[in-house]
Write a structure and sequence with these properties.
26 helices, globular, disordered C terminus
């Protein structure tokens, strides 16, 4: 991409490239790459490329020889003019984006919002589903900030700095030691340590606001559409890719919730001391008022999160400035008042034991489990209203993923707390350490990993059986060539491994259910005993006691190791381009959807990419009256479909869709049935003039769309051969590789299907379509 040059408009005042006068036979192929990204030189198969439009983040490129193709439509060319939309820098261009790994739980819970089952006539249930997911996302923000408070306030300022034996091993805590200065008072230590979680909150707020401006503030094509339902999927609605109002409200609410969490952590210990018998009456009264104000602030935050969801039928550009500015500022004021209250002089007050972390983390764990259970009930009701046999987990994918997000948040919080506690105190046991619940949660990691190991063994056994069954199919497909048992086994094994993608729902179901049960057991054990698993099992059978101690020790190290690996991977990705690209692939899949449930999740690149594509297609077809093949590979096919839904009818009549290696039905249709289900894909098939889909049995991501033809060929072409040749032939004298998910354009079928699509896109009149069939209701 660095070698690409910016193509300038003509000096004579003519139209810019791609928008000059052209005859009706002009044809364009707009290529959209998939996960991981690529360069324009690779997409266009030419070392000389120019940038037609766009910037360093996302742009459209052409071959240098085709820069002015519309000015010379009579030039001899093989096929349409190729044009590449390169969007990889939206997810993997900057090394600092590797730090988005720390926001993984937020991204996962945001996915749960979009996984709701499809439903007709159940608007209240749909709103309840969205509200429950938003509340789950809010609990994750509180959990993250509570973990930061646990590290900075409880472990460091309260326990270690208040214990001479621990503080003596860390010279940087000397000025916080009791009796060594003004900061030695417990409340002042807490007030000073509160700067750490407060700074973390400010950083999350800043990143959310900055990334919204860079990624998601793009105006979609046509901002004055009437407020109406436009089809069976929300992706066709005018305001789907522009959620300014909800994003601003959620950002304000989550920021306020984080600041209130810090304020409660600072003021709770002082209020508890003042309310003891014989405490100062004035300070006790102030503590009651402060707690009431914090409770009122928490109620306001919950009200804002529950009050309003997405408004997709129109562009929701209202800013809600009084609320967006007032709520975080009020929370910040309460934090300052809490710090002043805690820092007041209290003779005789000493730090002992732990801050009330057990209650905080226990309440969060219970609330998250309850939210997930209620969410599952709502999802089941929606699925029964409009059953979809292809939907993952029979509509329960959203609750399962939400449970996984809560588990990730708990693991990361517990890992940080445990590692910091070990670093501060080691094995000397001079401080109480983190809350007991975090130790119980760490202890359930070994049995969960054992369960995952069993499932991996089941998958391996399943792959072996599938590979044996595929051998006969491979031999039949290449019946005319000499047999090679080794070659047959390799092809069959690749097909079997590709088929394991369809077992993903079972893995998620077992993992989520086990996580819920083990988490509930940890909560009950911590609440009932008030001790760590090893201490609680003391006096039990030696086998039970030994198992509890082993799980506790192993779980602590595993949870810490996992967090260290996460940070290490992020540091490596900051310096290593290949590792950065791998992380970018994860975000390509996970950040396609707008931030509807959590404002601090990694930004949605589609809110930039989809408007880019729709603007380019609409302006080019309007200026040239030409034909356009929208060609998308892998995740690029999802962007292509989303752009086609957003096009006005006048542009859509000149567009054909060519998808290959596409997860539209295999992944998106099953996991996001409300937006990519059968009704939505069938409507897309009717909206565009023609659509063809290519896939291979060796592809673990792409698959068939499973839609019949409508006055023309079916959408799916029969699966492509992979490899193209079994052995050495005249056309393939060297062994042909097994391509799997890559190099679809190298297959002769690709050029053939593109030629047929252009033939159906007649220059004079768009190809006739059967539009008498009404689309399904949204």
């Amino acid at each position: 991409m660095e070698n690409a040059q910016q193509h300038r408009p003509a000096e004579d005042g003519g139209a810019p490239a791609g928008e000059g006068p052209a005859g009706p036979g002009t044809a364009l192929e707009l290529l959209v790459h998939g996960v991981g990204g690529t360069t324009p030189e690779q997409m266009l198969d030419d070392p000389r490329t120019v940038r037609v439009t766009g910037d360093d983040t996302a742009a459209v490129f052409r071959r240098a020889d085709d820069a002015d193709a519309e000015r010379d439509p009579g030039a001899r060319r093989d096929g349409p003019v190729p044009e590449a939309y390169v969007w990889c820098n939206l997810t993997s261009g900057n090394g600092t984006r590797a730090l988005w790994l720390l926001l993984l739980p937020f991204m996962v819970v945001n996915l749960a919002h979009w996984m709701r089952p499809s439903a007709r006539g159940r608007r209240r249930a749909v709103r309840l589903y969205g509200m429950l997911v938003r509340l789950t996302g809010l609990s994750l923000t509180v959990l993250l900030v509570a973990a930061a408070c646990e590290v900075a306030l409880d472990l460091t300022a309260w326990q270690c700095a208040g214990t001479p034996a621990c503080a003596g091993r860390h010279s940087w805590l000397g000025f916080l030691t009791p009796g060594e200065g003004w900061w030695g008072a417990p409340g002042r230590r807490l007030a000073l340590a509160a700067l750490v979680p407060a700074a973390l909150t400010g950083l999350l707020w800043f990143l959310s606001l900055r990334t919204w401006s860079a990624y998601e503030s793009q105006q979609p094509l046509g901002g004055s559409e009437p407020e109406e339902d436009t089809g069976p999927t929300a992706l066709s609605r005018p305001g789907f890719w522009y959620g300014r109002r909800l994003g601003a409200r959620l950002r304000a609410a989550h920021t306020a919730a984080a600041l209130l969490t810090v304020a409660a952590a600072v003021g709770s210990a002082a209020a508890r001391y003042d309310q003891e018998p014989g405490g100062p009456a004035v300070l006790a009264a102030l503590g009651v008022l402060l707690e009431a104000a914090l409770a009122a602030g928490a109620g306001a935050v919950v009200w804002v999160v529950c009050r309003r969801g997405r408004s997709e039928r129109r562009l929701d550009g209202d800013a809600d400035r009084p609320l967006v500015r007032g709520l975080p500022l009020a929370a910040l004021a309460l934090l300052v008042l809490s710090a002043l209250y805690a820092g007041w002089e209290r003779p005789g007050w000493e730090s002992a034991g732990r801050l009330p972390g057990n209650l905080t983390f226990g309440s969060l764990t219970f609330a998250q489990g309850l939210l997930v259970i209620v969410l599952a009930c709502v999802a089941h009701t929606l699925h029964r209203t409009d059953p979809d046999r292809r939907a993952a987990l029979r509509g329960l994918a959203g609750p399962a993923v939400a449970m996984l997000a809560c588990a990730l948040g708990g693991v990361m919080s517990g890992g940080v707390s445990q590692r910091v506690s070990d670093w501060l105190d080691g094995t000397r046991a001079s401080i109480p350490g983190p809350p007991v619940l975090l130790t119980w949660q760490a202890s359930v990691i070994p049995p969960l990993l054992l369960l995952l190991l069993v499932m991996c063994c089941w998958l391996a056994r399943r792959a072996v059986h599938l590979a044996r069954a595929e051998r006969a199919a491979v031999e039949e497909e290449y019946a005319g060539e000499a047999g090679d048992p080794g070659r047959t086994r390799r092809i069959a094994s690749v097909r079997a491994m590709a088929a394991l993608t369809d077992r993903g729902p079972r893995i998620l179901a077992v993992t989520s259910a086990a996580t819920l049960l083990l988490g509930a057991g940890a909560l009950v054990g911590a609440t009932a005993t008030g001790e760590t698993p090893g201490e609680a099992a003391r006096g039990a059978h030696p086998v039970v006691h030994g198992a509890a101690q082993t799980a506790q020790a192993l779980g602590s190290w595993l949870i810490g190791l996992g967090f260290v690996l996460l940070v290490t991977w992020g540091r490596r990705a900051y310096k290593d381009a290949s590792a950065r690209r791998t992380i970018g692939i994860l975000w390509d899949v996970g950040t396609f959807w707008p931030r509807a449930a959590h404002p601090f999740a990694p930004p949605c690149y589609a809110e930039r990419a989809v408007p880019d594509l729709t603007w380019r297609i609409a302006t080019w077809t309007r200026a040239t009256k030409g034909r356009l093949v929208l060609s998308g590979h892998s995740q690029g096919s999802v962007l292509a479909a989303a752009a086609a839904w957003q096009l006005p009818p006048s542009a859509r009549r000149r567009v054909a869709l060519l998808t290959y290696g596409s997860p539209l039905e295999r992944l998106y249709g099953r996991w996001f049935p409300a937006h990519f289900g059968p009704d939505a894909l069938d409507a897309l098939h009717r909206d565009v003039v023609c659509w063809r889909n290519l896939y291979r049995r060796t592809d673990p991501i792409g698959g068939p769309v499973r839609l019949p033809g409508d006055g023309g060929p079916d959408v799916d072409r029969p699966p492509l051969k992979d490899p193209l040749a079994y052995g050495r032939t005249t056309e393939h004298p060297l062994p042909a590789p097994i391509l799997g998910h890559s190099d679809y354009r190298a297959d002769p079928a690709f050029a053939e299907e593109r030629r047929h699509l252009l033939a159906r896109l007649r220059p004079e009149v768009p190809a006739p379509r059967n539009t008498g069939k009404p689309g399904p209701a949204a």
